[in-house]
Amino acid sequence: ETGVTQSPTHLIKTRGQQVTLRCSSQSGHNTVSWYQQALGQGPQFIFQYYREEENGRGNFPPRFSGLQFPNYSSELNVNALELDDSALYLCASSPDGSYEQYFGPGTRLTVT
Amino acid sequence: AQSVTQLDSQVPVFEEAPVELRCNYSSSVSVYLFWYVQYPNQGLQLLLKYLSGSTLVKGINGFEAEFNKSQTSFHLRKPSVHISDTAEYFCAVSDRLNTDKLIFGTGTRLQVFP
């Protein structure tokens, strides 16, 4: 197993732009969750996908959207970036019936 | 809805001393409880989890935690810390119906000094 990977590691965007973050889950992990971790804070749940369908959403606006693909990869898209979107974005995957989530190293997004 | 409070934002301790990181939670339903560790520039790693059964849970790297339902607490302990334990520690809860949605506390920075 290769674990959960995320790309890119870092990126810098300008306010108003759009960004796509990518995650590759472990094979067989049908659930992927995305979290936003602002500096000095704990991660906050954005949304979760199960077998390519959104399966729960936190308190984030619609400009945060996602996709999950059959090959266990997924994307987080953020439109109309705001300065407050600057954060570490974490994805986590888990197999069916497991209580443990496996986190990737995160993508650090800076919005200027 | 659930919430998690980590009472200490920073805990400084000398190497080989014991440490306790405090966590309290609030929930109207039964929950599962977790402790995660985050090393600099890395993602989160699960230290231990409480699902049911014995209230004393042992995890990796010599850590343990005790679930106290009456006090709604899940404090993390280690009898003797190492320099390598320096990291950010997060307590988290999930309800038993939606185990993949974790609610995290704000974290405790454990700083171990030689």
Task: Describe the protein's architecture and organization.
- The complex is a heterodimer of chains A (about 110) and B (about 110).
- Chain A has no helices and eleven strands.
- Chain A has strands at about 5, 10-15, 20-25, 30-35, 45-50, 55, 65-70, 75-80, 85-95, 100-105, 105-110.
- In chain B, about 0% of the residues lie in helices and about 55% in strands.
- Chain B has strands at about 5, 10-15, 20, 25, 30-40, 45-50, 55-60, 65-70, 75-80, 85-95, 105, 110-114.
- By secondary structure, chain B is mainly beta.
- In chain B, the strands form three sheets. In chain B, strands 2, 5, 6, 10, 11 and 12 form a six-stranded mixed β-sheet that branches. A four-stranded antiparallel β-sheet of chain B has the order 3-9-8-7, with no helix packed on it. In chain B, strands 1-4 form a two-stranded antiparallel ribbon.
- At the A-B interface, strand 4, strand 5 and strand 9 of A face strand 6, strand 10 and strand 11 of B.
Quick recap:
Chain A has 112 residues and is mainly β. Chain A has strands at residues 5-7, 10-13, 19-24, 31-37, 44-50, 53-57, 64-68, 73-78, 87-94, 102-103, 107-111. Chain A starts with a strand and ends with a strand.
Distance between the termini of chain B: 41 Å
Radius of gyration of chain B: 13 Å
Largest sheet of chain A: 7 strands, mixed
Average pLDDT confidence of chain B is 93
Distance between the termini of chain A: 37 Å
Oligomer: heterodimer
Q: Which whole number gives the mean pLDDT of chain A?
A: 93
Radius of gyration of chain A: 13 Å
Secondary structure: elements and pairs:
The complex is a heterodimer of chains A (112) and B (114).
Chain A: E1 5-7, E2 10-13, E3 19-24, E4 31-37, E5 44-50, E6 53-57, E7 64-68, E8 73-78, E9 87-94, E10 102-103, E11 107-111
Parallel strand pairs in A: 2-11
Antiparallel strand pairs in A: 1-3, 3-8, 4-5, 4-9, 5-6, 7-8, 9-10, 9-11
Chain B: E1 3-5, E2 10-14, E3 19-21, E4 24-26, E5 31-38, E6 44-50, E7 56-58, E8 64-68, E9 73-78, E10 87-95, E11 103-104, E12 108-113
Parallel strand pairs in B: 2-12
Antiparallel strand pairs in B: 1-4, 3-9, 5-6, 5-10, 7-8, 8-9, 10-11, 10-12
